[in-house]
Amino acid sequence: DCRNTRPSDNQEYWQKKRARNIKHDQDVTAMFKARGWTVLRIWECDLKKKNRSALVEKLDTIVNDEQRPFP
Q1: d(C-alpha 41, C-alpha 33), whole Å
Q2: Would you say residue 62 has pLDDT above 90?
């Protein structure tokens, strides 16, 4: 999980904002899944060299899953 850092200033604001963002992501994911889509969020930190193999593995699993039809 890339999102481990939290600002030390105005913590209550950022906690609420993060909670809203998580809820929004869950709602959007549910909407697309209900339409038959596969949802994969790629965070900026996923693109770093040290995380590249894990990202490629995730993508490979999704792309090569013959059981999953493309929408």
Answers
A1: 13
A2: no
